[in-house]
Amino acid sequence: MVDQVKSLAIESWTLYPFGILLIAARIASRCLLLGSYKKLQIDDWIMLFVCVTFTGVIVSVNQVSQNLSNYLPPGVAESFTKEEHDNAVYGSKFVLILEEFMLANTWLCKACLLILYYQMTKLTKQNKLVIYVAAYCVFGYVVTQILYLAVWCRPISQYWQVPVDNSQCASYYHHLITAAVFNISSDLIMLYIPLPILIRAQLPLKRKIILCGVFSLGILV
Description:
Blueprint: H1 2-34, H2 42-66, H3 82-120, H4 126-150, H5 168-171, H6 173-192, H7 194-200, H8 205-216
Helix pairs in contact: 1-2, 2-3, 3-4, 3-6, 4-6, 7-8
């Protein structure tokens, strides 16, 4: 257990500076392009806020790792000492926080991509598709949050109760399926937006393939 906690801490905090460095490089390049940080646009400020959500993900996942949670085999929680019970409650609260940070992080990155696509497609028929996809992403995020906080686990305090009365409050099974459906479906639609433009562009085939590969990375969001 100690080795797993240490391993996760090393891996996550090693990944963290790379993520922050990428965001910093983006902001620096935008400042150079625009001439001043005062001219940064909404997608740039969103990416700066992603630093906060990304930090929250790293901190929360380590807190969950270091403490127990209510996701336990039957009968285990009943044998806990008071300290173990308190740790499990604390860890379970961070599972809830972790999921909120992950949702925010994912959908903020989608927002940045959609802003980019909107600017790219202003003079094309694809522009309406970008607006529809943006509306779908907002709808998906709102529905996911409502179901997560108000439907799947009631009362909400069950998310950190040890042991739980409702297994959904520990496994997050229904929530994870819902979030995955909206996340993957929106990614697939977003993947379609830039490809027709690039295919029709008057560029060498090699450059088209490279650009298509770059924009296809959006599916990783």
